[in-house]
Amino acid sequence: MELEGSVWFAFLLTLFAGLSTGIGGAIAFFARRTNTRFLAVALGFSAGVMIYVSFVEIIPKAFESLENGAAGGNGVVLGTIGFFAGILLIMVIDRLVPSFENPHELHKVEEMDSAQKLKLERQALHRMGMLSALAIAIHNFPEGLVTFVSAMHDPKLGLTIAIAIAIHNIPEGVAVSVPIYYATGSRRKAFFYSVLSGLAEPLGAVLGFFLLRALLGDAVFGMVFAGVAGIMVFISLDQLLPTAERYGEHHLCIYGLISGMAVMAGSLLILD
């Protein structure tokens, strides 16, 4: 009975941490779609979140997991390979999307009227939000397992980790919801996908604890972490920042970038 109570407590903590992406997603309910300056800052903010968390948190965790996974002292080498493999993967996905469906492909200005331009811009933002949701969901999956296992072993430690993860999941929700809202005009869709990306955390807890704990070791987690870091960096540099520059002046993009890094840095300091 005591074990059952611990399992439910750990799961609820993980669910709380994951659903906090919805807090960031709720920003779509207060944003004005015509405010392109806000969009520029928000996209820069999202890029700052993803770049900072990739280099400061995810990659070091990947190296550590690979070293612990009996990588023979080659954890850094394998992690570096995994990082660039993630970049290669998202590049291939980007190129495989047909050009007529891929708003990331360049079109000559004279080939498009204003309606076509607007449609392409919205397609690009929607696609960007969906890719961000995918990357964040993959990243949140092992996070959920960490929160769950910590709470099982030490409820106080689990609570601390859950609160810290919840705080730094908020800007991740922004990274998903803002481009989807500006692309579709639907606040509900923006909120839904931000929440959906966070649900990967309780899913990671359930699958990891009940189904995959005998199969997934440190080495596998390390390669997944490294690959996700590569995906997040590519999305930030290839899509988020260029789009932020296009919708607003250069300084707004940089202010958003630095703000995103600062918020993520603060949440990670709390976690430590």
Question: Summed up, what is this model?
Answer:
This protein has 272 residues and is mainly α. Helix content is 83%, strand content 0%.
Structure description:
This protein is an all-alpha fold. It has one domain (2-271). The protein contains 10 helices and no strands. The longest helix has 40 residues, at 114-153.
By DSSP (H or I, 4+ residues per run), the number of helices equals 10
Mean pLDDT: 77
Low-confidence stretches are 98-112
Instruction: Please write the string of helix (H) and strand (E) elements.
Output: HHHHHHHHHH
Distance between the termini: 32 Å
Whole-number count of domains: 1
Work out the number of β strands: 0
* Rg, Cα atoms, Å: 19 Å
Helix content: over 70%
For the largest beta-sheet, the strand count, sense and barrel status come to:
none
- Going by helix content, strand content and strand pairing, the class is mainly alpha
Backbone shape: globular
- Tell me the strand percentage band: under 5%
